[in-house]
Structures are given as C-alpha cells and as structure tokens.
Amino acid sequence: MVLPSLFTKQASKKSKKQATDGIPSPSPSSPSLSRSNTGPLHHPHIHADSPPSSPDKRSYSRVKDRRSSSYSSRRSSKYDRDSHPLNLPPDELRRLSSSAMSQLNGQQNQPSQSQPMDVDRETTSSPAPNGAQPANGDRDDRPAPPPHRYTTSPAPQSANYAATPEDASPPAQAPTIDAESYKAAGNKFFKIKDYPQAIKEYTKAIEADPKNATYYSNRAAALMSANRFAEALEDCKTADQLDPGNMKILLRLGRLYTSLGRPDDALAVLDSIDPPCSIKDKQPALTMQRHIRQAEELAARGDAGSMIIYALNEAEKGLGSGVERPRKWMLLRGEAHLKMGNSNALGEAQNVAMTLLRNNSQDPEALVLRGRALYAQGENDKAIQHFRQALNCDPDFKLAVKNLRMVQKLDRMKEAGNAAFKAGRYQEAIDTYTQALEVDPANKNTNSKILQNRAICNTKLSNFSNAIADCDAALALDPSYTKARKTRAKALGESGNWEEAVRELKAIHEANPSEPGIAKEIRNAELELKKSKRKDYYKVLGISKDASEQEIKKAYRKLAIVHHPDKNPDDEDAAERFKEIQEAHETLIDPQKRARYDSGEDLIDPADMFGGGGFGGGMGGMGGGVQIDPEMLFNMFGGMGGARGGGGGGPGFSFNAGGGGGGGHPFGGMGGMPGGRGQQFQGGFPF
C-alpha cells in the first residue's frame, strides 16, 4: 500500500526547498503533516525519505536522524522524484513503503517535542471522502486505524471483552437447535436396536422442544425395548397429557400397564380409546386380569395352594422382562405356600416374606406372612415376635391381632397338657390336648405333635386302639414325623401285634438309619415277639403282669383245685393243663425266675452266645448267634458277682460287676476267684 504523502509532486518540491533553506516550515497542505486516514502527524525535523525506524526502539538522537536522512537522500537520488509510483522498481516501492511505516510507528511511540507542530485547520491537501474521519482532530472521536492493520480472520472469542467500548465485540450467537434432527437420529438408532443411543437422541429432542408429545412417546418406546418399563410409563403419561386422545399413545400406555402387572389400569386406558381398539389389543390385559382374579378367589375359599400358584404363574407370563412381581401377587403366592403346608412350601413362604421385607422392613403384611410361616414350622416364639412387630407398624391390623392371640392360646394349652402328662394325670392331659387341637385345625405341624402326645397318654392308659388312631392322624398331617411312627409301633406291640411293630420299626430304620435308638428298639421288639410266642404264664393263671405274690398264690390254688387230674379222671387234657399251671406258679412265685421270664432271658440259649466264632471283639460279631442287647446280657450275669477270669469256662473274659460270691447262674460257681488259668481280656464287654 502506498501512502500519498510520499509520492505527490508537491511533497517532493517542498522537501527540496526545506533541504536548501534549512527551515522546518512544513506545508500545511501536505498530507504527511495532517491528521488524516493515511497516518498520524510527522515530526518537523524528520524528512519524509528517512529510513524506517526499528519498532523495538523508542527514540533516536538528532545526529543519527540526520545521518539517516542523508543516507536516504543519496539512495533516492537515483530515481526521479516526479516519477509516478507505478513506474518505480519493486525494490524502491518496498523501501519507500517500509520507510513510511517506520516513520508512522516512530511518531506513535516517541513522545511529542517541546514545540508542537503548527497545523492549518482550514486547509487540506484534498477533499475528504464520504464517511472519512476529520483530519485535524476537531472531534473527540478516535481516528480509524490504518488500512494495513485490519485482518481478514475474525478475532478470537473471549469471555473478557476489550477494555473500551470501541474495541468490544458482542459474543457469537448460539446456533439454532433442530429438535427434528435429534428425533430422526433417534429413529435411526431405534431401527438398528441401539436403544440406549436412541434414548439419548430422543432426550435431546425433548430438551429442544419439551412440549412435543411425539418425542416423549418415542422415548417411551425405546425405554420399553430397553426393559425400563417404569421410566417408559412416566414418559407415556406425559405424552398423553400433551396430546390427549392420541390412539397410538394410549395403546402404548395400555401395554405398559400390562407389562407392569396392572391389568385393571391397562383395560381402563384401552376402553377410553375412540374409536374402540380391537380385542387383540386388549387380550393380554384380559388374560392377566382373569388369572389374578382366579387366584384371589381360590385364596378366599381356602382351596389348594397349588391351584393358586398355577394361576399366578400364568398371570406372570404377561409381565415385562425384568419386571418384579407386584406386591399383591407376592402376598398371594406366600398365602398359597402356607396352605400347602409342607416343609418346602413353608420355606418358599419365608422367601417371599423376606423379599418383601427387604423392600420395606416395616411392611405389616409381610411381617405377618413370615410370622405365620414360622408358626407353621413350630417356632412359636419367633412367630409371636413378628406379630407384635406388625402391630407396632399398624396397631389396627386385625390379621396380626388374630394370629397373635391364637398362637398364645395354643401355647398355653399345650403347656398345660404337658404339665398334666409329667404329673401322671394322663386323662387330664388327653382332655387338654383335645381342646388344643380345636384352636387351629389348619396348623399341621403343631397339631401333629399334639396328636402324638395324646397317643402316648392313651398308651399309658392301655387305650391302644386310640393311641394307634392318634398316630395315624399325626402321620396324615406330617408323613415325615418319625416320632409318631415309633409311638405307633409301640402301641401295636403292646396291643399284642409285635410282628407289625417289628415291621414298622425296621421300616423306620431303613428310611433313617441314623435315627437314635432305633436299633435297640428293634431288638426289644424282636424279643417281645419271641416272648409273645411262648406260654404266657400270666394268662395261664389269669392274672395281670403286675400281680403280687399273694395274688399269684391265690390264683394257683384256685386253678389247681379245678384242674387237678384226680378231680378230672375222665379229662385227658386235665393233666396237661395242671402241668402248665404248676410251671406258671413255679416261674412267677420265684422273683429271680419271674424277672428272667419278664425280661426274656429264659429265651436265650447260652450256647448261642458263643456259637460260630466267639465274641470277636466286644459284642460285635456274636458268631452267628442271637443278637443280644448288652443291657440284657448285663442283667443276665448280675448274679455272678465279681467273677475274675474263671477256671476254664470261657476264654478268660472279665466282668468287673462287684463283689464275689456265686449266684444261681451256671457261670456263677467260680465267682470271686482270683484270676485262674484262663487268659484275661480286660474290657471285653463295653460295660
């Protein structure tokens, strides 16, 4: 860019005159001396052709300025000053332009001289163009910067604008947001099943236009596909508020209610559509509603819990993926498991209650459900705690009050029956247990125990048929109740049916080999079975098993007179009957013989004790002989005293049962002898 002050003829002539006369009298018409669009004022002592000053230095000495001016004059003398600037070589043009720029920068950076330049305020070198700033500074407006200072690129935006209003520029205006473009992007992601990204795009569209129902409806569809049904329901409700009566939105809202397990709400929405929707659109909600109502009716009637479970399972097929079962459905499921009553079902009822309590630990219905499950499992103390906690949450909860009173009453009656049994008041215990059974007929676990207790009381009173009936009733309520089976076997045996008793006990042993004491009970029952097949001396004499010695003598005298052979010469069986009467009398009148007879020791052959291989270590492996109860064997050898080692009978096994002295037993003759010749085995028997 070429400045006019450097290339006008007038400026050249004036410069020569000033150089000749040495008078710093600048022409007022010179553009270089006027404040115009071309630049600021020049110092009067600086020649127009002086070399450019460095922008980094603020001032120079006058001597140096004169040298520079002389140097510039010598170089510029090569060219005619009257030549048009376009005729100058490129190097000269660049030099002149650089010189002018240096002078301009120097004037801006150097402080003003002590004597200011006189400026003719009335004359100008040329008329100012339209819109130009005043050249003489008459106004306070700041002059526009030189043209070369403008740039083509916009200034960078900054939060801190320029210090002066002239330099400040307003911030860039935010671009316009197109909600439809976000919606279109969301539709593309939805079609390729990228539901999370589709949700993001629909959310942007909603933020751009919050009053558009379509955007909410589309986001609800994406949320449904992402199995986020609760969030989808809220979006669909908002869309319905923004666009009431939209059939597409209402159909989607109905499907959402169905997926969340709310068929009644779904049908209410679908019925509001005008024109009415098809039966196909309503069918899922209708099916779910039918199954739920069926489950409620079954629970109200007290029908089988398995049917309630089936109805609930069918209803749950309509739930959305990942949707939790509604609380009402879970309570119905827990009620069904309680009605089923078996151990697995009661465990499921506990699980249902715990799931509800994890969501809300103060849910009174869930607390009562768990309390009822504990009560059905026989944990009455824990059940009472749960019922009381439910009443703390809701003091008016009638179901909690009912169950609490029932469990407390049942506990009181059960304890009263047990106290009567321990005191030997068996009939009173039977009456109390009978009343306890009427408190809660539906409680299988507790009632089975009460029936078993009543069976024991009946056995004590020799009411064997009633005892067997009570055991059968207890097993009907709880088939796995082993204690009731053992009581039944005992009642069968004492009623005279020891064969059935042995079979029952062996069945218990096969089902549960680890049952405590079952092996001993089987041995005792087998012994009683043998005893039942021998002559019953008590029956021969017609007396009870607890008859006294006087009763035995009296019965013997009476029968001996009647059945003596001399009194019955024509009766061939009289002698045989009289012989049995004598045997019965001899056995029962002798306390030792009677004890052996009652215990069944007389049925054991001593040879069987050592047959086929001896003891073989303790009582195990009796060599193929009869299985003998160690306690019975101990009683058998009670009359031996403290036999130590024996003089030859057995192979030296040792009994440490007490003092010496022989008894009436075949092995008692050597009692009290110090260890004989036989080898002694300490601890051969586990007594």
From TrEMBL:
Q: Where is the J domain?
A: 536-601
Q: Which CDD domains match?
A: DnaJ
**TPR repeat coordinates:** 179-212, 364-397, 410-443
Compositional bias ranges of the Polar residues kind: 150-161
Among SMART domains, the record links this protein to: DnaJ, TPR
Segments for region (Disordered): 1-176
Q: Which PROSITE patterns match?
A: DNAJ_1 (PS00636), DNAJ_2 (PS50076), TPR (PS50005), TPR_REGION (PS50293)
Q: What is this protein called?
A: TPR-like protein
**Can you name the source organism?**
Sporormia fimetaria CBS 119925
